[in-house]
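User: Sequence in, structure out. Go.
Assistant: Echoing your sequence, followed by the structure tokens.
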Amino acid sequence: MAERGIIVTSGLSRRRFGQLAAGFAASLPLAAPSILRAQEGDVVRMCWFNTTTVSAQIAHVLMRTDIAARNGLKMEMIQLAASPAITEALVSGAGDVGTLSDFAAVTTMAIGAPVTTVASQARFRSAVLATKKSGITKMEDLRGKQVYGTFGITAFQNAQDAALKAGLVPGKDITFVNVGPAELADAVGAQRIDAFFSYDPFVSYFESSGHAAVISENLSPVIVLAANNRFLQQKPDVLKRLLTANAQALFFAAQNNDLVNGWFRSLEPAKNIPEPVLQKASKYDPAWSAKTFTDIKVALSPAQIAQMETLAKWGVEAKLLPRLPDVPKFINTAIAGEVDKQIAAGGFDVQSVKILRA
């Protein structure tokens, strides 16, 4: 498909790419939220978005298998556009639990939202890339150049950090330019810019299409699970069973990559992500290749919490956050830690999982 005479990909137009990256579900013929209910169990309203690798696959497993019911849960899976919409749902009480990027979670902390980060769900890659026509092969080559991307996301902080490590001072040696996802895709497709930053699966797409090459990557970004405080306080046992189900769903996905990738690609706005791109992007999360259930970890690690603190400091310095939050106070690792102990003891037979909805 082409737009403005520019071929971005055989199946992914500039406009579609922008919609996908920005999470513009409202502008797409998005299917009604998928809801899978067990016959009995505690209701959990889980908000998610169908673009982030591994995280989205987990949601599909929870919708399409009996894993939730095994844990005494009735899942109501509410598909929303992106982190901001999920944050709003959690704050308003329309959702009990939701998936958020690490910087989105830090943002809820900075505004004092009644939301607590309760687990690590998935990891993803961010990167700085150079376009094919630029001839740039390393970060040091960006001196005096402009680097494009969307401000206010984890990938922006990662890109600035990569510049500093290369001896480039943002605003002096290198200039970052704020641009929306659709405009970025257009510029990359037309090779009008030299460098940009993004995150997977879009990093993998631009690599696979030959439009750009990675010159710096960061594998630390994480998708977290955040819970409405009332749900956390009133139903800690339900949350514990949800985290258990989430871990089991992740392991099921790790053992059934092709099947679950197909489920991911069955819904907008991910229908036009090429399967090889999706698989490549997913592999940057070590859990995607888990061999045993004990390879799955639920609780945020000290390093991940420290990274969120770094994001908070950066957010304040970049004037993206109103105040510096005390990050650890907004994180509960106790329940996830209990689940990790259960996982270490084993006992989950992935072969016995039943598919309820193909």
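User: And one key feature?
Assistant: The first strand starts at residue 2 and ends at 3.
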